[in-house]
Amino acid sequence: MRFDYTIKIILLGDHAVGKSSLLVHLAEQYEPKDNSCQCLDFRPNGHVELAMRRNGKRILAKIVDTGGQERFRSITASFYRGTQGCLLLFDAEKPDTFRHVNSWYVDLEMYTSRQPMSTFLLGINTQSHNRQVTPEQVERLATQLEMQYHELLLTKKSNAVEIVFALLDKIVTHASRLPSLTIDILPYQARQHLAEKARRGSQEGVLDAEKFKCAC
Q: Where does the record place a coiled coil (predicted)?
């Protein structure tokens, strides 16, 4: 299957905050309405790949989990490489996971400072009677970090797919306004073709310059 865009989204947050559960819900609840939409690959604690059509474009979205590395704070730069979007999770029943959001955001900024990033803040267990993080606290943090905030429902009627769709739409819209970003989300073969075309153009420019060199 050929795609117009390939987009990588990473999941960040403390251990056992719900990242792996989110992957499961994406894989299980992604019910395509036609043959152009499907779950291509799912690896628990690893990633899920979704193929879809959004606004006339064929998109391959890879949503990647940390695979437990966050437990030891051993996530490396390679995990962040080539990322266009991030879902940053906290558990409203566990205040520590909310307090650590800032730390995760600092890491995200450090490793992706050279690439534009679209990030959503996600809260789980926000409907729980044991909720310990207040809506006011979340609103302040989302405003401070300039993030959209969504409450993630990990139930039979999960809204996980809708949230991913919203993030993908934001990434594509952002990229459409900046040609350099559009190149970043093109499939590998298309990027290679553009790079080769640019290289040839550069060589032709050198040859043209040679014609006008001074012979003195």
A: none
Evaluate if residue 146 carries a pLDDT over 50.
yes
From CA 12, how far away is CA 109, in angstroms rounded?
12
CA angle 181, 184, 187 (to 5 degrees): 135
Dist CA 12 CA 169 (whole Å): 20
Token pair 């989110």: residue? 22
Residue 15 dihedral angles phi and psi, to the nearest 5°: -60, 140
Rounded Cα distance, 11 and 122, in Å: 10
CB 112, CB 35: distance < 8 Å: no
- Bridge partner list, 122: 89, 150
- The string of pLDDT tens digits covering residues 57-104 is 889 999 999 876 665 556 778 888 889 999 999 999 999 999 999 999
Helix (H) or strand (E) holding 190: helix 188-211
